[in-house]
Amino acid sequence: MIEAGPATALAIPALGALLIAFSGRWPNLRETITLITALALLFFVVRLAPQVLSGERPSVTLFSMLPGLSIAFEVEPLGMLFSLIASSLWIVNSIYSIGYMRSNNEKHQTRFYVCFAIAIACAMGIAFAGNLLTLFLFYEALTISTYPLVAHKGDPATVRSARVYLGILLTTSIVLLLPAIIWTYVIAGTLDFTEGGVIAGLLEGPMVGVLLALFVFGIGKAAVMPVHRWLPAAMVAPTPVSALLHAVAVVKAGVFTITKVIVYIFGIDFLFAQPSSGWLVYAAAFTIITASVVALRQTNLKRLLAYSTVAQLSYIVMATAILKPLSEIGAAIHMVSHAFGKITLFFAAGAIYTASKKTDITQLHGIGWRMPWTMVAFTIGALSMIGVPPTAGFVSKWYILAGSFQADNYVALFTIIASTVLNAAYFLPIVFWAWFAKEDVPPAKPHGEAPATMVVALTITAALTIGFFFFNQTALELESQLVGREK
Amino acid sequence: MIESNLPALQIVLPLIAAPLCVLLRRGALAWVIAWSATWATAAISIAILLKVLDSGTISYTFGGWAPPWGIEYRVDPVNAFVLVLVSVIGAIIVPYARRSIGVEIRREQHYLFWAAYLLCLTGLLGVAITGDAFNVFVFLEISSLATYILIACGQDRRALVASYQYLVMGTIGATFIVIGIGLLYLMTGTLNLADMAQRLGDMPLHRPQLAALAFLTVGISLKLALFPLHLWLPNAYAYAPSVSTAFLSATATKVAVYLLLRFSYSVFGQSHVFENVSVEAVILALSVAAIFVASLVAIFQDDVKRMFAYSSVAQIGYITLGISLANQSGLTGGIVHMFNHAVAKGAIFMLLGCVALRIGQPLITQMAGLAKRMPITAAGLVIGGLSLIGVPGTVGFISKWYLVMGAIERGWWWLAALVLISSMLAAVYVWRLIEICYFREPSAELEGVREAPLSMLIPSWVLIVACVYFGLDASATAGTAAIAAQSLLESTR
After folding, report:
1. pLDDT at B1
2. Phi-psi region of A205 (alpha: psi -120 to 50; beta: other; left: phi over 0)
3. CB of B335 less than 8 A from some CB of A
4. Residue A343's pLDDT is what?
5. What is the rounded distance in angstroms from the CA atom of residue B25 to the CA atom of residue A362?
6. What is the reported pTM?
7. For chain B, domain boundaries
8. Does B396 touch chain A (CB under 8 A)?
9. By three-state DSSP, how is residue A73 classified?
10. What is the pLDDT of residues A172-228, one digit of tens each?
11. Whether A64 and B475 lie within 8 Å, measured CB to CB
12. Contact status of B485 with chain A (Cβ, < 8 Å)
C-alpha cells in the first residue's frame, strides 16, 4: 500500500471496474460497489493532500516502459488539485448516474459503470503522472475508455458523433502531441516534470513557438479552436457522461496537461522570455470570444453548455499563457470553479430532460416553479460561469485578472471583460425565463422534480459552487506552491 | 553436451519431428509431436538468446570443420531475437491449431499439415540461424515449399490459386536470391557470410557486387512482400487456413526481413557498394508507399482477413522504413516492430480463426454484433487493433516511438509526420471493424453462436496480453532490439 504510493489512486478505481464488471447481474450490488470505490478513492486522495501541502512530493516509479523512460508517478500541487476534483465529483456523479440511468431505462448499464471507473483511473494516472510519457499513456487511455460512454446509445447517429469525438482526439494526440513529446525527448533527453522546465537553453527562437503549438493543439482535450469540434459532437452522450467530459475528467485533463507542460516542461520564466510564445494568449482569446458568440446562438441547452465549456477552457489556457504566478494560480483555481459550476449546469440539464424530456432553452419558460431545486442550482451554476460573487467563478476570475495586470496583458483583460458580458447574455435569459415567464403550453402530464438521487447530486454541486467562494484557502495554498511562492 | 549443441538442436528437432508425423499418420499423434517439438524448440531459442546476450556471438561448427570451410551456425543478438520470435509464435499456435484445423482442414490431411508446419518452422529457423549463404538458400526453399502447402490447405478453392501465385513469385524471388549468392561466391570464393563480408570489404568495387546486391534485394523484397512486390500476400493470407495465416504472418515475412538486414548491413556493410548506390532511399520510398497504399486499400476491403492482410503489407512497410533509416533509433524501431507486429497480427489472425471456427471466414458485415456473441474474441480484436494504430500501452506504440525518433534525429520531419498520419489510416480500418462488432445487432450468421473454445482463446489471449505487456514494459524487447541494431550498425563502415 505504502510502497505503491500514488499508484494506489489508479488501482482503486481499476479494481472497482473489475468488480463492477463481475457484479453486472445485480444492479444494486453493482452500484454499491461504484459508490464504495468512489468513496475509497476520495479517502485516499484526501489523505495525500496534507502531505503535498507540507511540501512533500510522494512519488513512485513502477517500471521502465522504454529503456530510459519509466512509468512514474509524482504528486505535485496541480495534480493534487485535479485528483481532488475528479475523485470528489465522481461520487456526486455516481449518485446522479444511478438516478439518471435507471429512470431513463438506459441499456448496457454495466458497461457504463465499468468504463466510467476506468476513465477515473485514467484521470488519476494523468493527475499523478511523473513524466510526459506516463501522462500520454493515460491521456490516450482516457480517450479510448470514454469512447464507449460517448457512443452509449449505439444508434447510427450516435456512433457517427462518437467517431468525430474519437477521430479528433486520437488524431490530434498522435499526429501533434506525440511528435511534440518525442521532440522534447530528443532535445532535452528527459521527459520528467521538473520545476523550472527542461527545455530552457536547449531550444531558441521561433521553434519554441512551434513546439508550444504542437503541444497546445495536440492536447485536443483542451478544445482550443480549431480542435474543439469533438466537444459539441460528444453531446450525444447521456448526461452523466457529459458531466464526466465537461467537469470531472476529460476537458480538465486537457487543460491540466497544457498547464503542466507549460509549467514543468517549458517553465514559465523561460517561456515568458520567448516572444514566439505570445500567440497562445491570442489563440485562447479568440476561442473564448468565438465560442461565446456561438453559444449565444444555440437553442439546444446541452449544446449551449458545450460551447460555454469551450470558452471556459480557454480561460484556463489563456490564464496559463499569461505566464505570471498569479495567473497560473488563477488557471488552477478556475479548473475547480468551472468543474463545480459546469457539473451543476449539466446535472440540471439532465434533470430537466429526465423529468420533462425538454432539451431546448425555448421550452423552459416557467420551469423554475415546477423544479425549484433544479433551477436554483442552475441559477447558481450560471452565476458562477459569469463570475458573480458569491460563487466559485468569481474567485478564479479575480486571480486571472490580477495575473493579467501583473503581466500588463491588456488583450487578456479585455477578453475577460467581453466574455463576461457574453456569458451573461446567454445565461441570464434562460434563468429569467425559467423564473419569470409564463409556461407557453402546460405539459400534458404535469411533472415535478427529477428522481431524488439526481436532485441530491445537483444540490451538492451547487452547494460546492457557493462553498468554494468562502472556503478556498486550502486550494490557494496548494497552488501557490505551484509557482514556488511562500504561503 | 546438450548446451553446446543447442544451435544444431534448434534445427534438427523440428526437422526430425516432421517425418515422424508422416510416419505415424495419425492427426492426434502428429499434433502431440508438433506440440513437444515446437515447445522444445522455443525453449532452446530462449536459452540461445540468453546465452548470446550474456556472452556474445555464438559460433557453432558442424562436424568440427572450421569456418569458412565447414558450415557455420552463427548467432548474434539479431538472429537470436528472430529465432525466439519465430519459435515462440510457432509454439503458441500449436495448441490453438487443433480445433481450428479440425473444421478447416480435412481430417485425413492433418498429419500432413503438421509435417508441413514443422518443415516450415525448420526452414525459417534455419534461415535465421545459419552463417552460410548457400544454407540460407536451402532453408529458404524448405520453408517456401512448406508454405505453399500450408496455404493450399485452405477450404476455399481460391487457396490453390493463391498458393500457385505465391509459388510462381516465390520461385522468382528464390532464383534471384540464388543468383545473388552465386555472384557473391564468384567474387569472394566463400559462402561463409562473415568471411564474405570481410572479403567484400577488402576488395575494390566491381560491377558484379552491384548486380549481386540488386538480385538479393529484389529477391528478398519479394519474400518479405515489400510494396510493390507484395501481390502474392493478400490472397495467400486471405485464403489460407486460419492457423497458416497466423503462423506465416507472424514469422515468414519477419525472417525475410532478417535476411534483408543481414545482407544489407552485415554482408555489404563493409563493402564499397553503398558509396555509389543508395538502396536506402529506394527502400525508404517503397516503405512509405507501402504504408499508405496498403492502408488505403485495407480500408476498402470487405473480407476481414484480406483487410488485415493488406494491413500486414503496410506494417511490413514500417519495418523496412526503420531499416532504411539506418540510425540507432530507426533501426531499433524496425527490429522491435518485427516482434511487435508479429505479436499483434498473430493474435488478430488467431482471433479471426476463432470467428471462422463458428461462422466460416467472415465478411465485415457478418461480424456485426460480434461483441454480443463472442465478447472475449471481440475484446481481443480491439486490443490487437489498437496496437496496429500504435496507441500507447500497446506494442505498436513502442515501434512508432522509435521510428519517429529515428526520423527526427535525422531531421526528417516530413517522415515523422507521415509515419504518424499513416497511423490514422490504421485507425480508420480498425475502427470500422470495432464499430460493426460493437454497435450493430448480431448478423444472421452470428445468431445463436457461442464463444470460441478455451483451447483457442487462451493462446490468442497470450499474444494479446503480450501485446499490452510489452507495450507497457518494453525494456526486454526494445532493449534487445537496441543491442541488435547496435551490432548491425557496428558492422558497417
Report:
1. 65
2. left
3. no
4. 92
5. 80
6. 0.91
7. 1-277, 305-493
8. no
9. strand
10. 999 999 999 999 998 888 899 988 888 888 888 888 889 999 999 999 998 888 888
11. yes
12. no
Phi–psi pair at A360, nearest 5 degrees: -105, 145
Tell me the HSE value of B414 on the side-chain side, using a 13 A CA sphere. Answer: 3
Report whether the peptide linkage leading into residue A390 is cis, meaning its omega lies within 30 degrees of zero.
Answer: yes
| Chain A residues close to B427, C-beta within 8 Å | 167, 170-171
Q: What is the ipTM of this complex?
A: 0.88
Q: Are B120 and B143 spatial neighbours (Cβ–Cβ below 8 Å)?
A: yes
Q: Do A148 and B438 touch (CB under 8 A)?
A: yes
Contacts of B423 in chain A (CB under 8 A): 174-175
Judged by CB atoms closer than 8 Å, whether chains meet at A71 and B472 is answered as yes
Peptide bond before residue A238 is cis, with ω within 30 degrees of 0: no
Residues of B in contact with A183 (CB under 8 A): 408
Q: Which B residues 244-283 touch A at CB under 8 Å?
A: none
B479 touches chain A (CB under 8 A): yes
Determine which of A174, A184, A211 to mutate to test the interface with B (most B C-beta atoms within 10 Å).
Answer: A174
- Report whether B470 contacts B395 (CB < 8 A): yes
Interchain pair B409, A186: CB under 8 A: yes
Residue recorded with cell 488485415:
B308
What CA–CA distance (Å, rounded) separates A160 from A154? Answer: 9
Q: What is the CA radius of gyration of chain A?
A: 21
Query: What per-residue confidence (pLDDT) applies to A484?
Result: 67
Q: For chain A, give me the number of helices (H) and strands (E)?
A: 21, 2
Look at residue A446 and tell me whether its pLDDT is greater than 80.
no
Among B residues 398-417, those touching chain A with beta carbons less than 8 Å apart? 398, 400-401, 404-405, 408-409, 416-417
What would the pLDDT profile of B363-397 be if each residue is shown by its tens digit? 888 888 888 888 899 999 999 999 999 999 899 99
Specify whether the CB–CB gap between A162 and A241 falls below 8 A. no
pLDDT lower than 70: segments of chain B: 1, 493
Nearest chain B CA: its distance from A365 CA (Å): 37
Position A266 pLDDT exceeds 70 = yes
**Tens of pLDDT along A304-329?**
999 999 999 999 999 999 888 888 88
